[in-house]
Structure formats: structure tokens, C-alpha cells
Amino acid sequence: MINKNEITSMSPHFEDDVIGMLKQRGKKTLPSEGVVTAAVLVPLFFKNGRVHVLLTKRSDHVEHHKGEISFPGGKLDSTDADFLSCALRETTEEIGVEPRDVRILGELDDFYTVATGFLVVPFVGIIPYPYDFHTSPREIDRLLGVPFEVFFDPARRSEDVWNIYGKQVEVISYKWCQYNIWGATARILKHFADILSDRRGLIT
Q1: Is 156 exposed, middle or buried (0-12, 13-18, 19+ CB in 10 A)?
Q2: What is the b/e burial string over 162-192, where b = at least 16 CB atoms within 10 angstroms of the residue's CB?
Q3: How confident is the model over 127-144, as pLDDT tens digits?
């Protein structure tokens, strides 16, 4: 759980290094025809000199992905100028972080969700911490601040093949405390950890 009283510190080179790594690689885009499109923010913050990622546990009142561990984000709306605008709007609505308080570092590859088939466009950003979070009671059950080194640890990761609608689908999941982080959220985190693997000293 998020502790608002923790003291934070930041590596002076972390943000610039991540921006460089994301820029120098080619982003993989996926077709959006016939699917629901959505955007998410991968919010990083610094606590006690360590990089954490802020995840949400979704409530049981939402239409999709009830009770799952997710990033703040949601469906592209007709009022959104682009995917980034969508990710920032949804982040404000779900957890109360204002767009002016997010420094975007870059984009990750597009992903489809396993069960619902959404196309998800992820953006990586730095948020201040501590922060006066205001969660949507309808959408969010709680916030989780997970140390990013969790996603470098193969002992915490499992990879299985599920039969979904007659198709064999690889499903990645991570165990952290009592939580199971799986699906598109886990695949996005593994993808980001793979990008950072050569420079994991930035994280750990």
C-alpha cells in the first residue's frame, strides 16, 4: 500500500537515460481496426532511492477487469486529442494525478489484452511522490507501490499457456506480496524490464 509519509530521492540520470532508451528503439504498433482502443500510464516514482511503479487494484464495480491489478488508464474517448491525452485524463479521473504533474519519458509497444481484446497503448511517466492521491471509489479499490526490481526477478514470474476462446495464449504473471499481477499489465511490465535490463543499475 502507498505510504504518503515516505521520503523520496531520485537518480539524477534516471529520467534522461530512460528517455534515451525509449527513443532509440522502434515502437511496435498493432492494428486498431475492429477493437476497442485504450491508453494507460506506467507511473514511476522514487521512494527511499528506489524506483517503484504505481499500480491500481480495480474495484468490483467496473465493467471490465474487475479486481485485477492494472495501470491507470482506459478507453479512448471522442474528446481525447490523442492516446497520450487519454492516458493522462484517465489517470486524473482514476487516481487524481494531474497531467501537469506527470513527466512523460516515452512510449512502450502496443499490446492486446488477453481476455477482452482491447488494444492498449502504454506511456511511461514520472510522478511526484509523496502525492495527494484521490482515487475514484467506483473504479479503484486501492493503490499499490511495487518496487520495480520485482519485474527483474524470474523467481517471481510465471509463464503459462491458457486456452482462451479456442486459442492458445501465453499468459505472464508476477507474484508480489498477496497480489497476482497478470495479463497485459504483466506483459507491459516485462517488456519495460527487458528494455531496461542492460541498465538495471538505474533501478536497483
Answers
A1: middle
A2: eeeeeeeeebbbbebeeeebbbbbbbbbbbb
A3: 999 999 999 999 999 999
Is 62 contained in some domain?
yes
Angle, in degrees to the nearest 10, between helices 183-196 and 14-24: 100
Q: Which domain holds residue 93?
A: 14-149
DSSP character at residue 25: S
* Closest CA relative to residue 95, chosen from 136, 59, 54: 136
Of 164, 35, 182, give the one whose Cα is nearest residue 112. Answer: 35
SS3 21: helix
Instruction: Provide the pLDDT confidence category of residue 12 given band limits of 50, 70 and 90.
Output: low
Q: How many domains does the chain have?
A: 1
Residue 154 lies in a domain: no
d(CA 31, CA 112): 10
Q: What does the pLDDT look like over 37-90, one tens digit per residue? A: 999 999 999 998 899 999 999 997 765 657 899 999 999 999 999 999 999 999
What is the CATH classification number for the domain harbouring 106? 3.90.79.10
Q: Which of 204, 190, 153, 141 is nearest to 14 (CA)?
A: 204
